[in-house]
Inverse folding.
């Protein structure tokens, strides 16, 4: 029997990329995210406007002849945010680190997916699903548990890169799976292209890394007597740990809000202290305080000047209406908005080099506002590239 590869979402957006692999009565789905969807919007509306992938049997409690299984490469919303809209029990496979964090977020009420039956898939231990064999490989991204997913139907090999970078803390993970895939001689490589969406991403002087972010953070702590306020992303556990360590090494205590405190303690981080504003107001130069956007006005009770570092927390960028609200608030406090993020995505040159090394028979760029730009670079590097359209099916006999 042939395998059908169907592209449902994410071909010209950053995130929300969903592809299915179907053979006989088995359908594998990966990933399962949404770019942006208010939780109050009905699933039917999101399905009709294309926000959710065109899989009505999963969102409208419809019968299907297919046995569907979902695979999540990592726990960012644009790769798993559609799980909350499931209407019937569905197996969802992810790495152990992803499953651990997901359970913490569910316990806190941050996530809610009653029909997602989460199961763990160990790295490099293949599991069979009907005619398919699925293998997860650990990769490097700005979240623990990030994975590359390989699918084999016995004749063909397909690979979903998930999100990846090569200048993070663990480039050896990427080098390992790239070597394995090169030897596998894969048929189809679905490769993210986030950084092709922007200009000048190959400028070494503007590219921030996790390591350089900590250096800059340490310098700011050393150079100011003011309270330092940071807004990081709660799912980037390793960065949060590094921020706390950097603060401690430079003579400041790091204080977290209740949600971050629960997450960090649940993930095994030691010496996590919750915010005590009385202590902060009495000795602001002794502390770094974490602040989420939805608790921005907690800062109202602090009547002195402070330093504000926006570290990939929400709102993520100017396209989010909340970003102007954040900017306006800081302006009224006469506080500069300092952006100190580090990308979880590979530079364009690194993506091209990675694709060259894997050397798939065909490479599909997606997860980008400009997949055609990535495609052009890949073709120039001598690779066979294909740009599918939404809903298109590729058949492998």
């Amino acid at each position: 029997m042939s395998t059908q590869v169907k592209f449902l979402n994410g071909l010209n957006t950053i995130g929300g990329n969903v592809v299915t692999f179907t053979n006989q009565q088995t359908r594998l789905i990966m990933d399962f995210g949404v770019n942006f969807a208010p939780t109050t919007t009905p699933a039917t509306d999101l399905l009709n406007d294309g926000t959710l992938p065109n899989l009505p049997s999963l969102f409208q409690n419809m019968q299907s002849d297919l046995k569907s299984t979902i695979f999540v490469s990592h726990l960012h919303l644009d790769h798993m945010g559609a799980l909350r809209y499931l209407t019937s029990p569905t197996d969802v496979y992810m790495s152990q680190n992803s499953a651990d964090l997901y359970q913490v977020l569910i316990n806190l009420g941050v996530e809610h997916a009653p029909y997602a039956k989460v199961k763990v898939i160990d790295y490099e231990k293949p599991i069979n699903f009907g005619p398919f064999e699925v293998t997860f490989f650990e990769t490097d991204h700005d979240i623990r548990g990030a994975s590359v997913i390989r699918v084999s139907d016995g004749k063909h090999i397909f690979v979903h890169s998930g999100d990846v970078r090569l200048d993070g803390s663990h480039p050896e993970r990427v080098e390992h799976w790239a070597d394995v895939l090169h030897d596998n001689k894969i048929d189809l490589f679905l490769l993210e292209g986030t950084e092709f969406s922007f200009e000048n991403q190959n400028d070494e002087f503007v590219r921030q890394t996790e390591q350089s972010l900590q250096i800059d953070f340490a310098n700011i702590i050393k150079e100011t007597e003011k309270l330092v306020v940071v807004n990081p992303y709660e799912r980037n556990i390793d960065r949060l740990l590094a921020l706390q360590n950097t603060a401690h090494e430079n003579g400041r205590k790091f204080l977290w809000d209740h949600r971050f405190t629960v997450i960090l303690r649940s993930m095994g981080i030691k010496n996590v202290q919750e915010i005590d504003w009385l202590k902060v107001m009495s000795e602001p130069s002794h502390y770094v305080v974490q602040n989420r956007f939805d608790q921005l006005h907690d800062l109202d009770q602090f009547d002195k000047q402070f330093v504000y570092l926006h570290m990939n927390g929400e709102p993520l960028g100017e396209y989010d209406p909340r970003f102007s609200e954040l900017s306006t608030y800081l302006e009224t406090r006469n506080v500069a908005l300092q952006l100190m993020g580090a990308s979880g995505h590979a530079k364009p040159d690194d993506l091209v080099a990675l694709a060259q090394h894997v050397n798939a028979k065909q490479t599909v760029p997606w997860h980008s506002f400009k997949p055609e730009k990535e495609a052009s670079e890949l073709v120039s590097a001598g690779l066979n590239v294909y740009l599918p359209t939404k809903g298109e099916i590729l058949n492998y006999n």
